[in-house]
Structures are given as C-alpha cells and as structure tokens.
Amino acid sequence: MQPLFPSQKTLQSVFSASSPLTLHKTDWTPKPRSRYEAPRGVFNTWSAIDDAKNKAGQLSNAAIQELEKGSAKAQAKAGNIEMYSLQYYAACTFGGLLACGTTHTFVTPLDLVKCRRQVDSKMYKGNIEAWGKIGRAEGFRGIYTGWGPTFFGYSAQGAFKYGGYEYFKKTFADLVGPENAYKYKTVLYLGASASAEFIADVALCPFEAVKVRMQTTIPPFAKGTFHGISTITGKEGFAGLYKGLYPLWGRQIPYTMMKFASFETIVEMIYSYLPGTKADYSKSAQIGVSFTGGYMAGILCAIVSHPADVMVSKLNANRQPGEAFGAAMGRIYKDIGFGGLWNGLPVRIVMIGTLTGLQWMIYDYFKVFLGLPSTGGPAPPPKELKA
C-alpha cells in the first residue's frame, strides 16, 4: 500500500541546496515586485482614504444635524404653515426672492460678457479674454459691473415669479376642478407660470434697463442702481425705464413657462424611475432631485428665450429716443440678421443651466427648512384628490 505522506528522503530532495524552493533564513533582501503584486504603500493609501471618508461622513452628519436643529427652531417660530394659506404664499415669495436675487448676482461676470458680446460680437473672442481685458482696464470691480441692479431687479422678479406661480397654480386648479387639473397639468403649469412672470417683469424691467446700460457702456453710464434710475428718468422720463418691457416679456414669459413646466415634468419623471415614492427619500435627496431637474430645465430655457434676450440687450443699449418699438426691432434685426440673434448662446446655456438648478435648489431648500414639501413629483390621481 502506498503511504499517504511523503517520506523523509523525498522531503530532503525537494528542499535540497540545488532546489529552486530553497529557503535562506538569513537572506531578507527585498525581491523585485511582480506586476501582479499591489504597489508598496497602497494599503496605507486605502487606509488614509477610508479615514478621510469617515471624517467627511461625520462632518456631513454633524452638518445635517445642525441644519435639522435650525429647521426645527424655524418651524417652531413660524408655526405649522398651512398649505395655500397667506403664510404659505409669503414663504414661497421670500424663497423666490432668495433664490433669484443671490444666483443672478453670483453670475454677474458671465452676464456682463454675454451682454457685451450681444451688443458687439467682435468685442471679445471668448470669456477668459473678456474677463482679462475687463480686469486690466477696470479692476476686479469691473468684472461685477451691474451687480446692484441685478440683485434688486431679480430679487423682486423672483419674489413675484415663485410666489405668483404657487398662487396661480392653486387658483387655476380650483377653477377647473381636480380631474381637469390632473389631466391637463402641463397646461396648468404653463398658464400659472406665464401669469406670474407677466407681473414679475413689471418689477424687473426698470432694473434690467439700468443693468444693461451699465454693462454695455464703457465706462458705465452710472455709478450705481439708483443713480442709474435717476439718470434715465431725468433724460427720458419714467417711460425710459420701461422701453424694454415688451421684449422682456417676449424673453421672460416663454423662458419661465419652459422653466416651470419642464421642471415639474422632469422631476416627476425622475421620481417615476426611482424605486419607491418621493416620500421615501430624505430631504437632502429631494433637494438634489430639484437641482438636477432645474439644471436640465435651464438648458431648455436658455435655447427658447435666447433670441429675445439678445433683442432686449440691443434695445436697451441702442434704441434711439422716441424711436417706435417696431421700427427699432426692424432696424436691429436688419443689422444683426438671424444669426446675430444667437450670439452668446453657449455662455447663456452654462449661465442659465447653473442659475436655474441653483434657484430650484435654494427655493426648495427654503421650503423644506420651514417644514413645507419640495416642489414637483408625481401628482396624485383624481380619486385621491377628491378623497
């Protein structure tokens, strides 16, 4: 019978001096690393990465806890805000003010270059060159030319836009009834947003006139927002502040209709593809969905409203005193042609996409902070609405 284990003689032959498996107890010289081995120190690197992740997670959890504490205090002070009450609309109005005023002011450098390139496409070859030239000629403050009227104008516009949208959406839904509101929800979004923007642009227009003139005149024609308003009214009367209202409506109403309707639709689609329901996701996750939906909606907004945006810039910068609106539009279009209506579009896509995403994120964060639901998501069917 053959033995199960090797004999002593066999083992000695295997581990003899001539064998390739010979072990040298005193030879601890490092051997060259095989390509299949992990690099030295990689496990230490992984450990450092894990430590950083753990610390970041701890900081994130601590930040979330602090935000929840602040939210609880704010809700305690504000009380339980009833949906569609005056307090609810006031909260939405203030949320819109924060969302639009801060974001538009933040991207003033982009807006400055966009407006100047719309008025004179040969002024700069690109954004980096533009900021470099402006910074050298006018200093860092020059890059933020027009931030004052931007802040005041878009704060007012955001307040009326978001607060008005919530009001008109509820009002129109009540007028047509639950079944029609659910069936024609996209039409409802379009009508509510158009109505809100119509009013919001009346508040925005004077500041937009000052902003465009400050950004397209070198050096700027006014030292600040209210100096600009007094300068325009002194030369052209109160009507001078509103000579760009019609093209502003032409730009902003389609923009806002696309902004709100596409946002609501995109957010609903996102939640429909995700497992579970909107209520299953945390507040931070819902706000992340709001930012994603807002950014995607912003790209569509930029494309739809860009020709009118170019015309607003041209009219505020080049319309002659006493010149009729139609005559000014015809003269400007003859000068720039159809292609000129698309000057600065790539810059505006980046600007508006970022703006819209951040606006929805700030707006919904403010609502959630006060204990209100975030905007968008699958609408309840009519049977649930009736119940």
Supply database-style keywords:
Mitochondrial carrier fold, 74% helix, 387 residues, 0% strand, mainly alpha
Q: What is Rg?
A: 31 Å
CATH architecture: Alpha/alpha barrel
CATH fold-level topology:
Mitochondrial carrier fold
- The structural domain count equals 1
Give the name of the CATH superfamily.
Mitochondrial carrier domain
Distance between the ends: 87 Å
Structural class: mainly alpha
| CATH class placement | Mainly Alpha
Low-confidence stretches: 17-25
Number of helices: 14
Shape: globular
Order of helices and strands: HHHHHHHHHHHHHH
Overview in brief:
The protein is an all-alpha fold.
What do these coordinates show?
This protein has 387 residues and is mainly α. It has one domain (82-386): Alpha/alpha barrel (Mitochondrial carrier fold), CATH 1.50.40.10. Helix content is 74%, strand content 0%. The protein contains 14 helices and no strands. It has helices at 8-14, 42-78, 86-106, 108-119, 127-143, 147-176, 178-183, 185-216, 225-236, 245-273, 283-318, 325-340, 345-369, 382-386. Helix 6 (147-176) packs antiparallel against helix 8 and helix 8 packs across helix 9. The chain is globular, with a radius of gyration of 31 Å. It starts with 7 loop residues before the first helix and ends with a helix.
